[in-house]
Amino acid sequence: MTRPNTYRSGPDERGHFGIYGGRFVAETLMPLILEVEKAYKEAKADPAFEGGIREHLKQYVGRPNPLYYAERLTEKLGGAKIYFKREELNHTGAHKINNCIGQILLARRMGKKRIIAETGAGQHGVATATVCALFDMPCVIYMGETDIARQQPNVFRMKLLGAEVVPVTSGARTLKDAMNEALRDWVTNVSDTYYLIGTAAGPHPYPAMVRDFQSVIGDEVRVQMQELEGRLPDSLVACVGGGSNAIGLFHPFLDDPSVKMVAVEAAGHGIDKGPLAHAASITGGRPGVLHGNRTYLLQDEDGQILEGHSISAGLDYPGVGPEHSWLHDIGRVEYVSATDQETLDAFQLCARTEGIIPALESAHALAEIVKRAPKLPKDHLMVLCLSGRGDKDIFSVAQHLGVKL
Amino acid sequence: MSAPKDNGRIAKRFAALKAEGRAGLVTFITAGDPDLETCRAVLHGLPAAGADLIELGLPFSDPMADGPAIQAASLRALHAGTTARKTLDLVRGFRATDADTPVILMGYYNPIHAYGVDRFLADAIAAGVDGLIVVDLPPEEDEELCIPALKAGVNFIRLATPTTDDKRLPAVLQNTSGFVYYVSIAGITGTASADNAAVGAAVDRLKRHTDLPVAVGFGIKTPEQAADVARVADAAVVGSAIVTRLADGLDAEGKARPGLAEDVLGFVRELAGGVRGARV
Ligand SMILES: Cc1ncc(COP(=O)(O)O)c(C=O)c1O
């Protein structure tokens, strides 16, 4: 494959990253998707829109968050110098809010009156409910029953914030089913409703738009690393569910050839334990079409979508954002995976050595650092996206560790 | 695009309906629901019960545009082991008994994508499929399947919806063949019903843009509603109501109770009665 001049120009007019992406939606939604695309294009060109986002990210979300030198973990692993990008310090405790601020400001520009969203771990649901409270808009969150059971604190948070949480009982009752149900709602309420998608997936323009809103992560890292070390980082590591925190960290660096990028998928019980045992769409899946885009999917030979498994509710989506599929195929980003067990170990290591309880999603990226850092020289600058805090996960971690709360 | 070199079954059927001076009944069932054998019994009985065209659902794990009734039908079919290949086998078996009734496969793109577009089209033609309705392929993605299907001689029937405005309609109709399927509500299958006046106006609007027959569906549940639509459109499509009737005939384990196929066909007969009596 020939190397493109830039890795940052995608998608094309029709929403394609190479062969991935696109707009595979029902006709009822198509005019609306085009309307979102047009509105986003106009908003991007309007300095007032950009200014509004910057202001909210600063005053409400608390950005910029630190690029923190994890000294004890660095010493413990004995290799690369490890920095954490502290997305978990954002208001609501994860990177998800970056995207929600951008999209709700867009929804308001478009004159939409009602917000819907899907959520897996509940982080995106909480972030959406939060911005809906802030901007006084009715909010309906679709969440699989299985996820509702394992993420009770976030369900309660969303309700406190005034959102309606609708349990989804179709399929395996997790994130993919919540997304189906949100799409069904949208088809039914096209005139007044905005669908606030939580990751860099779905039909064009969502993958590009969510990436743009999350790129604040990488943009800040670039400036902060310059201040701290006077140069670019050597490698970036992030977990991948749909891929929004990873693409947000990676995208500003895609054209810096010295910067290596590693994305960590959820290997669940192990990729070798069969297609139902993990949620690693790129490492263990193949290209197909779901939820509006062509991308790597967990599916059987007949094209039926499989239910992924991960200890983390935010990663067990059977797809991945289309830009990641492309970055994988052209080899710009390396896609690896971490098992539930490796994740639990890294989760505890981080808590004890750094005094930070990470989200289980982020702990997948930590697990990769544990494998990779010891083999690298001490002047190798490695950045981990600590995408969220782990308060929401303490109940399920306790259960896995056999502790009764 | 010029008229595709398809087998002409759909055009012939609509011409015959026009000659009879009545609208057609299009019935939807999901392939392999609740099991292949029962589905076959229903399928083979449909023409005699009054179905003029048949839509056969290609089951998919994630039917985003469908309501609870067809979602459940899809899952029953998948649990019964239905695949794209077995769906085509059903059509082949049907064709051996009926050379004239058009069969249209309706579903989502991924199972066809996984099968391989060219191979799927070749096998579909060989099985006797006349057209495809693929919900998640808007005109923006025509190169995926629509153009190859038209080239191969399989009709590609597009959905037009209340959100398809006059500006967009030409793009939607451009590569549509066979007939146009007007989705009478903004929503998923098997939920709300549109009011008659709105349907009439929508059909008139479509007719200003195309000479193709217009079938109207989504939300038609009774013979009376089917008759109302038959007064203003070239065909009425009934799906969820038939699928629900089928689901009512399942026992607690989800197995077909004796007489299920006959009961479903009885309901189709009532619907056909409504459609056929509409324009007297
Ligand atoms: C803390 C955290 N990190 C990561 C993810 C995965 O999403 P994405 O891949 O879009 O960043 C989630 C999803 O819920 C999350 O809550």
Walk me through what this model shows.
Chain A: InterPro entries: Trp_synth_b_CS, Trp_synth_beta, Trp_synth_beta/beta-like, TrpB-like_PALP, TrpB-like_PALP_sf. Chain A: Pathway: Amino-acid biosynthesis; L-tryptophan biosynthesis; L-tryptophan from chorismate: step 5/5. Chain A: This is Tryptophan synthase beta chain. Chain A: It comes from Azospirillum isscasi. The complex is a heterodimer of chains A (405) and B (280). Chain A is an alpha/beta fold and 405 residues long. Chain A has two domains: 142 residues, Rossmann fold (3-Layer(aba) Sandwich); 222 residues, Rossmann fold, CATH 3.40.50. Chain A contains 16 helices and 14 strands. Chain A has a six-stranded mixed sheet with strand order 3-4-14-9-10-13, with helices on both faces. A four-stranded antiparallel sheet of chain A has the order 1-2-12-11. Chain A has a four-stranded parallel sheet with strand order 7-6-5-8, with helices on both faces. The longest helix of chain A has 15 residues. The relative contact order of chain A is 0.16. By secondary structure, chain B is of the alpha/beta class. Chain B has one domain: TIM Barrel (Alpha-Beta Barrel). Helices cover 48% and strands 13% of the residues of chain B. Chain B contains twelve helices and nine strands. In chain B, helix 2 packs parallel to helix 4, helix 4 packs parallel to helix 6 and helix 11 packs antiparallel against helix 12. Chain B is globular and about 50 Å long. The model of chain B has no long low-confidence stretch (mean pLDDT 96). Chains A and B meet through strand 2, helix 1, helix 8 and strand 11 of A and helix 5 and strand 6 of B. The complex binds pyridoxal-5'-phosphate (PLP). The site of pyridoxal-5'-phosphate (PLP) has 21 residues of chain A, from helix 5, helix 11 and helix 15.
